[in-house]
Design brief:
The complex is a heterodimer of chains A (about 280) and B (about 325). Chain A is mainly α and about 280 residues long. In chain A, about 75% of the residues lie in helices and about 0% in strands. Chain B folds into 2 domains: about 220 residues, Rossmann fold (3-Layer(aba) Sandwich), CATH 3.40.50; about 90 residues, OB fold (Dihydrolipoamide Acetyltransferase, E2P) (Beta Barrel), CATH 2.40.50.140. By secondary structure, chain B is an alpha+beta fold. Classes of the chains: A mainly alpha (about 280), B alpha+beta (about 325).
């Protein structure tokens, strides 16, 4: 684009300096903290972290909930995206607007709404007791279920948006063509829709998984200290225990998991591609 | 025998918008029928209903004596070549053609796929992806993909309209050859009267969700039933007969330029090889005239006399 490459490079310099000085450097310092031993480099902080039973529980819970939220949002997302792309253009736009609407509302407000819905005297318990499924209100808040519901609600729109745009890019008539050639709806999904939307699924899956893993507000409000996740644990370590080493370890784990999730999903997607 | 594919009292709708109303049509085995009409006339909707992609509001469709009205598309033994071809971009040509046979666990899959690709002349491209092919080649793959399933009825959506003139001729020859060799019953949708005439045994002209006329190409060319049919089939000059519910219609080639009772001014002239096409503005409107190119040449803006000979007009009902 630029005749002189130096001009192009010079133009990216301010942004590069900004990122280096104010993001990469502090993160580097924070992450390196956990590798400082008495005699230089050491992974002792990581061994210490994972030798604690409570930390292990939090680690696996975070992984499990994030994977579960990503999985369930993919299932719901495909159904929703399919319905949306089947609509005529005007109603499609409206439905898409409805999907993106929650993204414009603060996650704090959205999560507090779940307090009202899921609380002991909330809407869900009132119904469960009224129709006689429960004798007394159940404790839903401050359980993994509450965190799961909150995260799913928070990140589902990202999955739906990714899948809708992937489906809109599928060749027109690919689905009817498969049906006429003898595919039932399950085969249409596995042989046509899934392979043709796998990039959208990878993007949506990565966004939802890393989002759920690194969310703070939702586990803090709906899980509290009873259902700690890595992010809430990190915050607690820093503010309560002033333990920056553990915080650095957790930050590293979150970064590694986010990258691995993306790589893994890409691998799964390409494996499907070569087999098909 | 004349009702291999039978459509009776078929009514189709999208939501509350009725697209086709009480349509009746019988097609014989091995026949090549064109559903012809302007956009919005219901021709594509009818084809989708035959394929099973749209459930009728009322009426029935039978194929080879079997009522398929409520059957899933897969169970109808119907093939459809889409206007967009609808190849699967993630599969090779081989796998595209094998798609339906695989679902059906066909024991002769490999032989049939290879024969299918051979038939359309693309055997050497079996391992290519659809994106590597030209539009015309993609369409032949789509044709092979439908044909290997040995459908009872092959539906084709605008099979020639995306092709340039040379490929159009090739595809027309291809489709006629396929019909000769396989004897498959074909129904194709088109908005182009010349495509319908060039390919079909019989033309079903549709208008506003109903059939306007069913006839052979020769019949419909020489004797359109209504003013709509005449207009659609190239009778450019239509004059109502006073006191009657009928009109007279002339093709551009039936109008004689140079002498006659009408006066006009040449507004357009186009050289078309053996013919020269004129547009003449006159008291009765814009008249299209088609004269041998060797005749006197008239220039734009030149006043001219012309004749609408009664013996060369067809009489049509007002529609």
């Amino acid at each position: 684009m630029f005749e002189n490459r130096a001009v192009g490079l010079a133009l990216t310099l301010p942004a590069a300096l900004f990122a280096a000085a104010l993001f990469i450097l502090p993160v580097g310092i924070l992450l390196s903290e956990a590798f400082q031993g008495e005699n230089g480099f050491s992974v002792q902080a990581y061994i210490d972290f994972f030798s604690s039973g409570r930390n292990q529980t939090v680690f696996w819970r975070t992984l499990k909930l994030a994977a579960f939220v990503a999985g369930v949002s993919a299932v719901i997302g495909y159904a929703a995206a399919f319905c949306i792309v089947s609509l005529p253009p005007t109603s499609r736009g409206r439905m898409f607007g409805l999907v993106t609407l929650p993204l414009m509302i603060s996650p704090v407000a959205r999560t507090y709404a779940w307090l009202v819905i899921l609380g002991r005297t909330g809407f869900v318990n009132a119904i469960l007791v009224d129709i006689g499924i429960m004798d007394t209100p159940a404790r839903i808040l401050f359980t993994e279920t509450a965190v799961f519901i909150g995260l799913l609600q928070l990140f589902l729109p990202l999955m739906i948006i990714s899948l809708v745009s992937a489906m809109e890019n599928m060749p027109r008539d690919a689905i009817p063509a498969a049906r006429i050639l003898g595919a039932n709806w399950f085969q249409v999904f596995t042989r046509v829709i899934l392979p043709l939307t796998r990039e959208g699924l990878v993007i949506g899956g990565t966004l939802v998984f890393t989002g759920s893993m690194t969310a703070y507000i939702t586990p803090a409000i709906l899980g509290g200290s009873k259902v700690l996740m890595l992010e809430t644990l990190l915050y607690q370590r820093v503010t309560v225990a002033n333990d920056f080493v553990a915080a650095s370890v957790i930050a590293m784990i979150l970064i590694v998991m986010a990258f691995s999730a993306n790589l893994l999903l890409k691998r799964i997607a390409t494996a499907r591609k070569t087999r098909a | 025998m004349s009702d291999f594919l039978n459509i009776s009292d078929l009514t189709l709708a999208y939501g509350r918008t009725v697209a086709v109303e009480k349509m009746n049509l019988a097609i014989a085995k091995g026949e090549l029928v064109a559903l012809l009409g302007p956009s919005g006339c219901g021709k594509t909707t009818t084809m989708r209903a035959i394929a099973g992609l749209l459930t009728p509001v009322a009426g029935s469709i039978t194929i080879d004596g079997r009522d398929v009205t409520r059957l899933a598309p897969a169970k109808r033994e119907v093939g459809l070549m889409f206007q967009s071809y609808a190849l699967f971009p993630h599969l090779t040509l081989y796998d595209n053609v094998a798609f339906g046979l695989r679902l059906r666990r066909d024991p002769d899959l490999d032989a049939k796929v290879r024969a299918g690709l051979e038939t359309v002349g693309l055997a050497k491209f079996a391992t290519r992806m659809p994106a590597d092919l030209s539009g015309g080649q993609q369409q032949r793959v789509a044709l092979a993909r439908s044909l290997v399933m040995q459908p009872k009825v092959l539906l084709l959506d605008e099979p020639l309209s995306n092709l340039d003139a040379r490929l159009r001729l090739e595809m027309r020859v291809e489709l006629q050859r396929v019909q000769q060799e396989t004897g498959v019953t074909m129904v194709f949708v088109t908005h182009d009267q010349s495509e319908a005439m060039g390919l079909a045994d019989r033309i079903v002209l549709m208008r506003g969700g109903a059939i306007e006329q069913i006839a052979t190409p020769e019949e419909i060319y020489s004797a359109p039933r209504t003013t709509f049919a005449a207009d659609f089939l190239g009778f450019e000059t239509i004059l109502p007969i006073e006191g009657e519910n009928r009109s007279m219609a002339w093709r551009p080639s039936a109008v004689v330029l140079g002498e006659g009772p009408h006066e006009g001014t040449v507004r357009g002239v186009a050289f078309a090889g053996e013919r020269r096409e004129y547009v003449v503005e006159s008291a009765i409107g814009m008249v299209k005239v088609d004269m041998p190119a060797s005749d006197t040449v008239y220039r734009i803006g030149q006043p001219v006399r012309f004749d609408l000979p009664k013996d060369r007009a067809v009489i049509v009902e007002n529609s």
